Amino acid sequence: MSTIDTASAVKAAAGGAVPGATDVKRSTLLAFSGPALGLYAIGLPVAVYLPPFYAKDLGLGLTLVGQIFMLCRFFDLAADLALGAASDRVRSRWGRRRPMLALAVPLMCLGAYQMFMPPAGVGPLYVLVWLVVMYAGYALGVISHMSWGAELSPDYHQRSRIQGWREMAGIIGMVAVLALPALLELAGDGDKAHRIAAMGWFIIAIFPIGVIFALWKVPDPPSLTGTGAAHVSLREALRTIAKSRLLKRILAADLLAGVPPAVTGALFVFMVESVVQAPKLTSTLLLGYFIAGIVGIPLWLNLSYRVGKHRAFALGALWNCATGASFLLLQPGMEGLLIGITLLHGLGYASGTFLLRAIMADVADEDELRHGRNRTGLFYGLLTMTNKVGFALAVGVTYPLLALFGFSPSAVATLPAGSAIPGLDALIGLYVFLPLAMNMAAGLVMLRFPLTAERLVEVRQGLAARRTGAGS
Fold this sequence. Notes:
The protein is mainly α. The protein has a single domain (19-219, 232-471), classed as Up-down Bundle (Growth Hormone, Chain: A). Helices cover 75% and strands 1% of the residues. A two-stranded antiparallel ribbon has the order 1-2. The longest helix has 32 residues, at 26-57.
């Protein structure tokens, strides 16, 4: 491949060369990361801005909005499996991952247009339908893009580098989409609907551009399944997956680690406005949080080179526990402390996501060595599924619980200064202790993960020998 620098082979941590490993050029990484700008940019507003917008400003209520967003997420879970398995079966002159990624563009952009620019008087059916369309495009894009990245290099550390670049581009997309409300606020536009629409237009513009750039510049490696036989059915694949302890640990860790940012994202606006009572800081704080996340990625990447991806993941979970618990210190008016804690917490934001996605590529290789089938797309479909479960639980459980304890975001603004806010303790408890428990459990799940750099060298050597024998 012309875009891969073959001048220097990458060495695994064990000291042995991974068969076929090469340094991926920065130009390739830059082009490959392009779609992540739009994919990540849509995730933040859906988790942070859209639920409060539909619940409060459009008058649908906390409980109804929470149930709709949770229902759409769970409805989409079966689609993740089907799309992941389908992407492994694609054979075309343009490659396996490119066509599916291209198909994601019209679905996600159409859904984004309808969700971010809703007409007056929207009802629950409108939200349900267009959320499903938007999520379908998003799932197709994420699965295709992550699977594509897993196949760009067979090396243990190069895979972390690829997913790290993807994560940095994604957070840059989130920072950019966050900057739009902040800029509009500075310009004196206080209309929340205008800010929501601006984020939607950004997504609709940036996602197609990033996809086109990646399709043009990045190679799409062909399937390397040695036998060339047809892929197994989805039912047979799931039966095998149920027996894979490595895959089950990855999915458990992803589910556990996905809940904390989803919970804090869904409740962040309420936390800033009700606990610290600094609503004007919301957009700026989120911007700083994700900039800190970009700064943190090279730190976690370098740590993974030293101690392994699974241990770096566990240490990141511990960091998130410590900084997340610091939010208990906040009181009304403590804006400086809020800024400091938010920035420190942001350093750990990406510590888990890109490392788990890099580890999943190793797990897919180990599965192919055992069973003779390349099911990378299916595995990333499962990873996308667990991530959605975490986000579904975040909104679908926390919002009704807040309503049950009497918390009402619309009522907070009308209370006299110094009045006790109903349900405030429930808000703080959900914001701090639920993520704390989930992060701790995720770190323990991955602490002694057995698929290390040394083991991956053996796996890749076995795959290389099998493919050479099949070719002969």
